[in-house]
Backbone:
């Protein structure tokens, strides 16, 4: 195909940070990738802009962002254009993989050098691993882009081998029998309507900025059990939904992400560690490998893949990492699987765009972000969704790291505008070590169904609001002025907050609450809220009475917290509603 | 080797110079500036922006005294830092030149200062505590080897004294002190403290004093961290103290400004996050080798300032120094969960219980300021709060080991509360209350 002569080339004429300009004479395609020869290494770049050359009417100037460190680059270094946009390799072996932001496998690279040096590359998927391919079409069949021609088992999944999505109608010319093949071998040959033959392998490349289509897009209806009570009760997310999860630093975004990785019920979890701490990604792929998947009992890593473009890696690759992860998610959704994509953090992604547009000299929008950042964010979240046609879904949960913890900043605002759910983490709750620090009063929006009825959900929100109001009263005018009835409501609200909304992410039992247990908790909360507590008002004065009420509720809360951590068997779990009933009726104080 | 020379500087600005045309300098490579007549070396400079029409350099020693006739000699290499174990006990400037007036150091090798990212797969999951003898850290926010954590403090807080106290108590093999924009008395203080504690022989100081060339200050963390990496690759546990990263960020802002870059917030370049992250991410526990722990100092007026804000997103927690006390409320060690479950069985529980009570106490304190904390429990909380600030949040003084520190926590709880008021489990109450 491309002989040396046919290659379209250019030469560098300007270099600054990760941005370069090159002069070319043939033709350049917007968005295509290029390889730049720097100091004996080949560095990848992407075309951002094409301009005329003021010095040479026969030439043009192309502006590119380079995905690797450019130290040593010289004016005149050669650029070779590939003709292909940035793409991701799709096929069996994606699961359990750990890549950098451009799909270079990190374990493979570490065999070469412990440090990531510019120009280091390795095949995205293992080329030697053998997969048992079973054909599902025969010679003469007609197939087109997205159709399966067979399948291989990948862990517990049935991984369909698809015709690349950009293919039109094709006829199967040949296909192999059931056999073990690696990803470099041809498994079928198809001919297109022009009669041109194409070899199909277990893998193909998909451009990351062209979304893989839905078969029949649908509104998310089924709720994901994330194991996190405040989410599943008050701010649930459906399969195929989108959630923005903003929070100032230290509010617990990372711990929440890790909880979702561990406990969310899904076939596949993809983690795009985008511009965040390397240590956190390491914890996931080194520690989570030892943990068990809640649905299969196998190692958690068997359902995961990780793109680690951590904060010290080249900024230009950060933007790419999220799109690559999205494309992998869409691929598995097309196969009929429920995929959850965690992008941590979309703010770093937006900052990468900001750095780039700043260097390009674009007129800046608010806080120097590109003017079109809200549209870019919306476009990204729109790629999530449920597919009735395949039965799969792609859920996108993006963390947001607002500057100064201020939710009014452009990225948080655009995210609120783009997502169906919103988990806002509050600094005040984090300071009070009330984890997870999702504020149940302010930032729990969701268009998805809860595991409990709307009315019961509302009851919980109401009591939390009421307690909060009374709390404000106590802080301003003092406890003495608060009537006993109000004080009881206050204690009830505190109890719901302390025992239901708060959860210990590091405790084996407490860390994950499934819907059955939520229903029991809900019953307990209903018992607590729907009956009034009577006290003998003559036995003591109001202050003594409040003090006694506090003691009783303290005891209840201690008991309930112990239940959260210790109740495991059905019998133990079922004790909660009854205990609370007795507590309210004051039949049994020694809880 | 004969090095290519350029004879004409076309533009001299603050910290930056430009030459016309394309002399063939590569990005980030170093050149030497020479006095035209005498060939005396004036400074080094780094190529940061190259086009076919002009090349721009950052000048390490500042541009004062340079003229259009100053000669540029090309070195065709990026900036390297000299490394040798003989550097221990010595003091260097921001580009690794001897700065203590002592004899030259014969380096074993020159190492790259590019700070390539460590492949995440060769990082260990951090699991070894770094004890400091400060209860506020050891009990409530345990420090872990390979952690990167800043001290957030107002400009007048004793943050350097705290860094020095941690350095003296911490069990690291090598301590690298990297000071940017230091005042002379701070520099002297560190030197004295380290000498007095006998730790000077395992310390290397890289210092940049306020008023020194900005570019040297800008380069300093890269040079110091590159040297730290060599020690870690050699199996050593290295503790790097970066003070003060706000000074460093301000230099970054100045230089971005000289380059006419579009500012994002408060004049800082949009790349502030990435630039800070590149330095802090050097902290690591490297498989089969040593480790690098970084404690930075970040001075601030407000937590929402871009430098502390971006730092908070990069580092693994932060320590808050306020009125000379290490405050529990906003301090956090993100890695503590990896180590504090393997200590005494009450460690995590007491940490949570006391923090939760302190949060309630802060609310009571606010209420008391308007005369609203009039109930008995609020009064208890107020007394607890005062005790906590005096005895637990005090970072200075004799080091206390973990278990006595935990016992001290129980004493404070017992003094002020009934067992059920603490939220602690029955089992722990039975074990420790009496």
Residues:
């Amino acid at each position: 195909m491309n002989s040396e002569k046919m290659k379209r080339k250019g030469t560098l004429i300007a270099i600054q940070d990760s941005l370069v300009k090159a002069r070319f004479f043939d033709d350049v395609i917007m968005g295509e990738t290029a390889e730049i020869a720097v100091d004996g290494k080949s560095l990848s770049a992407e075309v951002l802009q094409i301009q005329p050359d003021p010095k040479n009417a026969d030439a043009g100037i192309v502006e590119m962002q380079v995905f690797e460190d450019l130290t040593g680059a010289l004016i005149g270094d050669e650029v070779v254009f590939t003709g292909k946009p940035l793409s991701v390799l799709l096929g069996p072996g994606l699961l359990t993989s750990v890549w950098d932001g451009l799909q270079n496998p990190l374990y493979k690279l570490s065999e070469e050098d412990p440090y990531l040096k510019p120009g280091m590359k390795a095949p995205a998927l293992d080329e030697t691993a053998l997969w048992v391919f079973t054909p599902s079409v025969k010679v003469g069949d007609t197939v087109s882009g997205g159709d399966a021609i067979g399948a291989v088992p990948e862990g517990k999944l049935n991984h369909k081998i698809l015709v690349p999505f950009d293919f039109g109608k094709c006829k199967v010319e040949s296909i192999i029998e059931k056999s073990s093949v690696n990803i470099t071998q041809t498994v079928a040959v198809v001919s297109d309507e022009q009669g041109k033959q194409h070899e199909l392998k277990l893998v193909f490349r998909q451009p990351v900025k062209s979304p893989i289509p839905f078969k029949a897009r649908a509104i998310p209806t089924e709720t994901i059990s994330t194991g996190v009570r405040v989410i599943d009760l008050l701010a649930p997310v459906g399969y195929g939904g989108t959630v923005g999860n903003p929070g100032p630093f230290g509010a617990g975004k990372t711990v929440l992400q890790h909880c979702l990785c561990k406990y969310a019920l899904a076939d596949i979890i993809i983690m795009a560690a985008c511009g965040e701490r390397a240590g956190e990604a390491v914890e996931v792929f080194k520690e989570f490998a030892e943990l068990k998947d809640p649905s299969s009992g196998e190692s958690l890593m068997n359902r995961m893949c990780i793109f680690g473009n951590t904060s010290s890696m080249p900024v230009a690759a950060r933007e790419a990492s999220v799109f690559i992860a999205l494309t992998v998610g869409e691929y598995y959704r097309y196969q009929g699987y429920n995929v959850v994509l965690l992008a941590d953090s979309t703010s770093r992604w937006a900052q990468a765009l900001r750095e780039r547009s700043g260097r390009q000299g674009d007129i800046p929008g608010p806080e120097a972000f590109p003017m079109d950042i809200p549209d870019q964010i919306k476009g990204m979240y729109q790629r999530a969704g449920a597919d009735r046609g395949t039965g799969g879904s792609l859920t996108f949960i993006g963390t947001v790291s607002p500057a100064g913890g201020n939710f009014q900043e452009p990225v948080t605002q655009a995210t609120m505008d783009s997502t169906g759910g919103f988990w806002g983490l509050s600094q005040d709750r984090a300071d009070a070590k009330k984890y997870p620090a999702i504020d149940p009063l302010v930032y729990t929006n969701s268009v998805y169904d809860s595991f409990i009825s709307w009315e019961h959900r509302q009851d919980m929100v109401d009591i939390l609001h009421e307690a909060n109001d009374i709390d404000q009263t106590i802080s301003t005018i003092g406890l003495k002025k608060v009537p006993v009835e109000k004080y009881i409501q206050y204690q009830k609200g505190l109890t719901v907050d302390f025992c239901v909304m708060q959860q210990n992410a590091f405790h084996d039992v407490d860390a994950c609450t499934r819907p059955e247990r939520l229903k029991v908790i809900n019953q307990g909360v209903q018992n607590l809220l729907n009956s009034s507590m009577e006290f003998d008002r003559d036995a003591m004065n109001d202050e003594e009475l409040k003090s006694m009420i506090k003691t009783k509720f303290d005891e209840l809360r201690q008991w309930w917290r112990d239940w959260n951590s210790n109740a495991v068997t059905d019998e133990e779990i079922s004790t909660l509603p009854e205990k609370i009933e007795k507590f309210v009726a004051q039949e049994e104080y020694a809880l | 080797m004969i090095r290519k020379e350029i004879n004409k500087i076309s533009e001299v600005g603050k910290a930056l110079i430009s030459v016309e045309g394309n002399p063939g300098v590569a990005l980030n490579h170093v050149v030497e500036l020479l006095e035209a007549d005498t060939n005396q070396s004036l400074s080094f400079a780094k190529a940061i922006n190259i086009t076919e029409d002009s090349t721009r350099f950052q000048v390490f020693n500042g541009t004062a005294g340079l003229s259009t006739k100053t000669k540029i000699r090309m070195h065709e290499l990026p900036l390297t830092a000299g490394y040798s174990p003989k550097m221990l006990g010595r003091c260097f400037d921001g580009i690794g030149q001897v700065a203590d007036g002592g004899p030259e150091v014969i380096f074993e090798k020159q190492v790259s200062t590019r700070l390539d990212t460590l492949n995440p797969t060769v990082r260990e999951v951090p699991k070894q505590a770094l004890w400091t003898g400060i209860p506020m850290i050891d009990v409530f926010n345990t420090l872990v080897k390979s952690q990167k954590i800043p001290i957030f403090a107002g400009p007048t807080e004793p943050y350097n004294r705290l860094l020095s106290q941690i350095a003296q108590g911490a069990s690291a093999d090598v301590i690298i002190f990297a000071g940017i924009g230091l005042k002379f008395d701070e520099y002297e203080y560190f030197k004295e403290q380290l000498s007095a504690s006998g730790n000077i022989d395992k310390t290397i100081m890289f210092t940049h004093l306020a008023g020194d060339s900005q570019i040297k200050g800008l380069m300093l963390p890269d040079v110091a961290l590159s040297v730290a990496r060599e020690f870690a690759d050699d199996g050593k546990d290295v503790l790097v103290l970066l003070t003060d990263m706000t000074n460093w960020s301000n230099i970054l802002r100045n230089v971005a400004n000289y380059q006419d870059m579009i500012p994002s917030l408060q004049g800082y370049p949009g790349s502030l996050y990435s630039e800070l992250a590149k330095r802090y991410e050097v902290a690591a526990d490297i498989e089969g080798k040593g480790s690098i722990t970084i404690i930075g100092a970040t001075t601030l007026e407000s937590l929402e300032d871009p430098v502390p804000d971006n730092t908070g997103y990069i580092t693994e927690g932060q320590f808050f120094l306020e009125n000379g006390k290490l405050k529990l409320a906003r301090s956090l060690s993100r890695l503590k969960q990896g180590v504090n479950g393997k200590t005494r069985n009450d460690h995590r529980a007491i940490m949570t219980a006391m923090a939760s009570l302190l949060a309630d106490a802060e609310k009571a304190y606010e209420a008391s300021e308007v005369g609203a904390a009039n109930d008995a429990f609020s009064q208890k909380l107020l007394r607890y709060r005062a005790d906590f600030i005096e005895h637990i949040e005090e970072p200075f003084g004799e080091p206390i080991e973990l278990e006595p520190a935990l016992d001290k926590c129980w004493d404070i709880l017992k003094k002020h509360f009934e067992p059920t008021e603490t939220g602690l489990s029955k089992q722990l109450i039975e074990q420790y209350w009496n």
